[in-house]
Structure formats: C-alpha cells, structure tokens
Specification:
Helix content: 10-25%
Strand content: 15-25%
Order of helices and strands: EEEHEHHEHEHEEEHEE
Radius of gyration: 16 Å
Number of strands: 11
Largest sheet: 6 strands, mixed
Structural class: alpha/beta
Length: 194
C-alpha cells in the first residue's frame, strides 16, 4: 500500500511494508513545514518512515533528506547513485535562507540494484530497484510486484515517439515494461494506468 504526498512540486510516495516503510523522493529544501502538514493529514508520523530512497539527486528530489536523516530516517542509496549525493549542495548553498545541511553520505545504506529485491523483502516490500538512467546517470525506478512503478523524472512513455533518437529512454521503458507494470507514478505528472 502506498500514499501519494503532494506538498510542493515533486510527488513523494510513502510505501508501507510489513516491517519497515519507504519514502520515495522529497521536495526542495525549505519544504519541511509543508511536508509535516502533508504527513499529518495522512496520519503518518516521522517515526513511521524507516528509509528514504531518492529516484535521483537533483535538488527537487532530495531537499529534505538530511533533515529527515537527522530525525532518524535512514537513507537508502543505490551504489551507482553514491557519487551524486552532493550534486545539489552548491545549488542549495546559493540561498542562505534555506540553511541546507548537506547529506551525511557516510551514514547511508548503500546497496546494488541486484541486492535491492532482498533488501526490500526484509522490510516486507515485494519489488526491486532498477537503473533507469536516461534522465540522469543516477536515476533509478522502484518497481513493485503489485504492478506499481515509481519512475521519478523518467520521460512519460507517451513521449517516446517524440524521442526517436533517444536509445537510452527507449531502453529504460523496455526495462520497465518488462515487469508488466499496471500503474506508473511520476514525480511531476499524474500517474498513468496501463
């Protein structure tokens, strides 16, 4: 079961597992008060969030990660994302009002995509994480066995025809569709039922 949280420009998803819960993406830095209101409205407490997973490390997806880590949420990172964790630091540093604290990468739990199914199974979520790098080199998608697929900023499948020369995007969608998803959840668009 998952809950879509909308408190800014980026859709955040709370996925409930049997023995742990996963938050997929956050919004920009400075949105913590709005995030608190959104989770309160959904009867979710910070202590309910076990792990946070970013679909990629652009500023509009990881703005609250360090603040949530300071409140006990563990950061789950795919190994191919690790070198991108500080990608947004300079962007956030330009606005001193944000008082952004860089992510403590040393405290992250780093796994490979190959290890993701076992890791997720241990918290009671059936699915896996795959690399879908056409948007950015650190982009991943979370694909649940129930047919729900969280793709972050992957270009919507309807646009595929407009990107004839984009073999990476075509490959990403072939990979995602291999899992026969029923519903695609985007970070900045409405979900698509297949």
């Amino acid at each position: 079961m998952h809950i879509k949280l909308k408190y800014g420009n980026t859709n955040t998803f709370f996925i409930r597992g049997m023995s742990g819960n996963l938050l997929v993406d956050t919004d920009y830095a400075g949105t913590l008060p709005a995030f608190y209101r959104a989770i309160k409205d959904c009867k979710i407490k910070i202590s309910d969030i076990t792990y946070i997973l970013a679909t990629h490390y652009h500023p509009d997806h990881i703005g609250l990660v360090s603040e949530l880590m300071n409140r006990g949420v563990k950061l789950l990172v795919i190994d191919m994302q690790y070198s991108y964790i500080h990608f947004a630091d300079n962007i956030f540093a330009r606005d001193k009002k944000l008082a952004y604290e860089p992510i403590h990468a040393d405290n992250a739990i780093v796994i490979s995509t190959e290890e993701s199914r076992v890791f997720l199974k241990n918290i009671g979520i059936d699915g896996e994480i795959v690399a879908t790098t056409s948007h950015s080199a650190d982009s991943i998608s979370l694909i649940l066995d129930s047919g729900e697929c969280f793709v972050g900023d992957l270009e919507p499948i309807e646009y595929l025809a407009a990107y004839e020369q984009n073999d990476r995007l075509k490959y990403d969608w072939e990979l995602v569709m291999h899992y026969a998803p029923k519903k695609i959840y985007y970070a900045h668009a409405n979900e698509k039922i297949l």
